[in-house]
Amino acid sequence: MKRICFVLNVHPDHLDEYRKRHAEVWPEMRQALSDTGWHDYTLFLRSDGLLIGYLVTDDFDHAIAAMKALPINTRWQEYMAPLFAGLEAHADDGMTPLEEVFHLD
Question: Which domains, from first to last, does the chain contain?
Answer without folding.
Answer: 2-94 (3.30.70.100)
